[in-house]
Design a protein that fits this description.
187 residues, alpha+beta, YefM-like fold, 4-stranded mixed beta sheet, 7 strands, 22% strand, elongated
Length: 187
Amino acid sequence: MWLDDKPTALYRLYAEDGTLLYIGISHQPEARFGQHSDSKEWWPQVVRREVEWFADRPAAAAAEVVAIRTEDPEHNGTYSPRRSRKSIRHVVAEDGVEEISMTLARSRLTGLVRKVEGGGVVALLNHGRRDAYMVSLAEYRRMEEDMRIADALRRLPGVLSAGGDTDAARILDEALALAKQRALSSS
């Protein structure tokens, strides 16, 4: 991943009473703090920030795991000893698609990209549900073509049936069903 070799900060955010609220990593911590301020309900409690720099992202990510597990901040989910781990997983599902929680995917993105470049499919999970897919560019283009075919076939039966050619409409309906099945099985 292009960020792997960049200096990366491990940061800790504290409340006024000294409670550790959150631990995270970022190569641009100030920008990350802005994101937190826009999206985290606990952000107004933050009165103190500690930032520790590491030579690269993998080193910071490893330190983050240890820090969260040992210091147990109030608002971390991933790696927190107090959180249920049911939705945090990295498995191959029954349909053969590799599933990984988005919170775990962040630190493993380079390897995941290599997998999909090799023809694999990875489903990114959000709260245990498939939220997004990673596929190779070639697979994406094939899927896009399948969808264009399905879209064209979906419109043709109506056009042809309006002209009274019911056999052609029936054949196109069958082709549409096959194209839909192919498109769905490849996603």
